[in-house]
Amino acid sequence: MIEFSNVSKRYTTASQYHAVNDVTFSVAKGELLVLFGESGSGKTTTLKMINRLLDPTSGQIKIENQDIASLDKVTLRRKIGYVIQGVGLFPHMTIAENISIIPDLMGWSKEKTEKKVLELFELIGFKDRALLRRKPSELSGGQQQRVGIARALASGSKILLMDEPFGALDPLTKANISEEFLKIQKELSLTVIMVTHDIMDGLLFADKIAVMREGKLESFGTPREMINQTGSAYVSELLDKPFAQIKKITKIIDNL
Ligand SMILES: Nc1ncnc2c1ncn2[C@@H]1O[C@H](COP(=O)(O)OP(=O)(O)OP(=O)(O)O)[C@@H](O)[C@H]1O
Ligand SMILES: [Mg+2]
Fold it and tell me: Sign of the C-alpha dihedral, residues 57, 20, 10, 28?
């Protein structure tokens, strides 16, 4: 579905610094890829090249075997849902209007759009419909983030790019929303690339995990392969941190 071949991105020609450096990987239809890595490792840059908010400096990206460099940007973006890092709702629009942006652009009937908006609004855990008439600034940060997820799903896209979609959510809300999301993802066979800072997300949700480090792909594989692999000291260190915490908690519980 999505195929990166030796993709690099430099933001300025003056510098040799590569935000993304010779990255090759692919994601099959219906797969969920978790993109993991430290701050500044190139995750957002990678996502933005998929819907051509950025173009690679070199290399090729294909979607369904088509080189996206030859596709019209606007058409491409309508086909791809995007949950922006740090929410990115339009402040002057109501919640309902924000969710229905793409359906409106695609010329859906008012009825069909309203039905979809309500369905997604409930899916992201809201009950009070009055919220639909509020502006984003009148919602909490986590609520805004959930609206961002609904908006991306409303596009009906088969591909979703999600940049830390659950970053602002408490663990309980996150667990509920992510569970609902995973159900839909499997049901509709959505191809998803999701950036997260929580390695546990990767291990729980992902079909594949890509670890980025300083623009390079440090490791790529299934969660099982990642846990079993001994090739990268960096990945072992990444995994050791949360497991050490779990061990600590288990010890506390054992001593209760
Ligand atoms: N518009 C830009 N111009 C110049 N450099 C940029 C630009 N955007 C990002 N960078 C640089 O490219 C590198 C990768 O940035 P990117 O946003 O992809 O990181 P990230 O992995 O998404 O980090 P985070 O987890 O903090 O969101 C960083 O060193 C960043 O400073
Ligand atoms: Mg980022």
Answer: positive
Ligand 1 atom with least separation from CA of 38:
25
Ligand nearest to C-alpha 42: 1
41 lines ligand 1 (CB under 6 A): yes
Residues 6+ apart with CB under 8 A from 193: 2, 27, 33, 35, 46, 47, 50, 160, 161, 162
pLDDT tens digit string along 111-120?
999 999 999 8
pLDDT band, residue 230 (cuts 50/70/90): low
Q: Decide: 95 and 131 in contact? Cβ < 8 Å.
A: yes
Q: How far apart are CA 25 and CA 79, in angstroms?
A: 21
User: What's the gap in Å between 253 CA and the centre of ligand 2?
Assistant: 36
Residue with structure tokens 């609206």?
147
Q: Whose CA is nearest to atom 19 of ligand 1?
A: 40
Q: How many residues does the chain have?
A: 256
Task: Identify the pLDDT of residue 112.
Answer: 92
Q: Give 71-90 pLDDT, tens digit per residue.
A: 999 889 888 988 887 767 88
Domains of the chain: 1-72+197-256 (3.40.50.300)
Amino acid at 197: H
- The rounded Å distance from CA 130 to ligand 2 centre is 32
- Residue with the smallest CA separation from ligand 1 atom 28 is 40
